[in-house]
Amino acid sequence: MTRPETSPSVRLQLGVCDYPEHVPEDRWSAYAQQQRQLGLTYVRIAEFAWGRMEPRSGEYDWAWLDRAVEAYHAAGMRVVLCTPTATPPAWLVRFHPEILPYDAQGRVREFGSRRHYDFASPVYREHSRRITRVMAERYGQHPAVAGWQTDNEFGCHATSRSFGGASAAVFPGWLQQKYGTLEALNEAWGNVFWSMEYTGWDEIRPPHLTVTEPNPSHVLDYARFSSEMIRQFQAEQVAILRELSPGRFITHNFMIFESGFDHYEVARGLDFVTWDNYPTGMLEYFAPPGIREDVKTRYARTGHPDLIAFNHDLYRNLLEGRGALGREGADSPNGFWVMEQQCGQVNWAPYNPLPADGAVQLWTAQAWAHGADVVSYFRWRAATMAQEVMHSGLLRHDETPDRGFAEVQALDLGSFPVGNVPARVALVHDYESLWAYDAQPHNAAATYWQQTVTYYSALRSLGVDVDVISASADLTGYVLVVAPAITLVTAEMASRWTAAAQGGAFLVCGPRTAFRTPGGATWTDGQFGPLSTLVGARLLQYDSLRPGVTQDISGGHTAHTWAESYRLQGAQATHTYQGGPLTGQAAVIRHGNVTVIGASSESLIQDVLRGALQEAQVVTADLPEGVRLSRRAGHTLVQNWTAEPVPWQGRVLPPTSFEVMHDQ
Ligand code: GAL
């Protein structure tokens, strides 16, 4: 079956990740033609092919890649070419072992898989620029090349931070630039505590292998430093690609719940962003704590809808205002793709089930409804060698179509028009808060992602569309702003939140909001620091609850994990604690349009958010378990993520299914 051509800007496009270097050359044309016949538009290649592009130092072999690109071109595929810097070849490591990264135990991470480099290494940076330049010189204007992906999944396999080598050498200079003097650094970090004051820049090491926990301010600055190294590393590649490949887009494929760097900073300068969506692996491997075992079992073959949707809503909004090509060009009118979409089973989670029948279609439809302009499957043919032989592709090892292939073939792409996601609710997300929160969670079951996703999931269970936005994003147009775990609030953020609330928006904050200063200490006048006037209260107590210990709250709710209470200074308590050490103290407070929820309790969070949405005149729906609604471009996607039929609004939604409805 060959699908009719349609304009890329009209409906969802599909793509695939392919590895011509993994198969004999006599397969290339046939694969490309088969991809086109399946209705795929884009093919992403070469992100791990450095060893074949430059088999020996300075000796390039482009002939094979020329022919591969030609094969796709001849079949009408649009090529996304990658800089291959995720895999420095063996000879480069042999000549320059100083490019290797160090783990948190201080051991060198060796050659033999991928991502074995330190972003801060000046030597590696030079090689990264060199290989980017020669690739861009050769392919930058090739008619088949639609655009570029930089590297592959920054941060994958815990590679955002290196604890030795180049990073350790560059860190003190970065600190010197930031603080000017050691006195300023010692003051900012509070190094008087435990006699941690430094007397020379060279005394400062990465925050690892300390006898007990390192200073959280040190941890926070190391996270900022490492993030900045990634930003610089990519910016160097982007500058070269811009110069030599005009008119082509530049993107990067970000990861599921990656915490190691500030994605907003790193994404700046890209045309649009992409991310890699592995729903079943995500649930098994990346799910924040708090997702219960029975929930993992229930969604084992589809992944959890809210974990996936959260990432879509994050990446759709990563480039605020969007890059120029993203806005105007056909490749991504709405600013985001899924670059790698699971299309069978993965190989890297503790358990790797076959997806449910219909799951590949459900994932594709969900990605579309959350704003993706392109969904590109990983990978074309299952690998027949090395680390990923257990991983599915659209084709099996023996080249016969696998289950995912059939599902992709049966998709009706005409039912997926591109256009805006009409979210009126914003959920604020911030990497600095994430680092500060997770440096001292104060409860083994609490993490930044867990708290954030709990609020997100509550909103999604009420049927509303959500923009996940940065702490510096413009709040104009949102009727409800939810800040689940923004523990690090600057004066600038406080003034924008205040303006939004004064302008009529409702604001709902979670526990630990504005607990930290930007340096990682606490405010000397207590929580809520610069938000105190807006919130009309001060923090009174916080209680870290071990599993099995709970705290009752009025209204029939029960807190687990965390309960904090407030001293009222203008605000009113809408819920109070009952029993236990917090008896009678405020658990939820309201001051004008602003509500703060101090306790970890799913039912409480859902109730408060339902009330706020109704006040903000956003229509809510109490959805059955596993049913989700998403809206885009005048259409509503109804999804059933469960393995059972679910009655909904007078009809029955079949298991693992979706329906696209035209809005009236
Ligand atoms: C991704 C990665 C791919 C492949 C895939 C397997 O994280 O970018 O190269 O390894 O996982 O699921």
Automatic annotation (TrEMBL):
Catalytic activity: Hydrolysis of terminal non-reducing beta-D-galactose residues in beta-D-galactosides
Entry keyword Cytoplasm: no
Residue intervals of the Beta-galactosidase trimerisation domain: 423-617
Keyword hit for Phosphoprotein: no
EC number(s) given by UniProt: 3.2.1.23
Keyword terms, alphabetized: Glycosidase, Hydrolase, Metal-binding, Zinc
Domain Glycoside hydrolase family 42 N-terminal span(s) in chain numbering: 19-411
Similarity field: Belongs to the glycosyl hydrolase 42 family.
Protein name: Beta-galactosidase
Organism: Deinococcus malanensis
Lineage per the UniProt record: Bacteria, Thermotogati, Deinococcota, Deinococci, Deinococcales
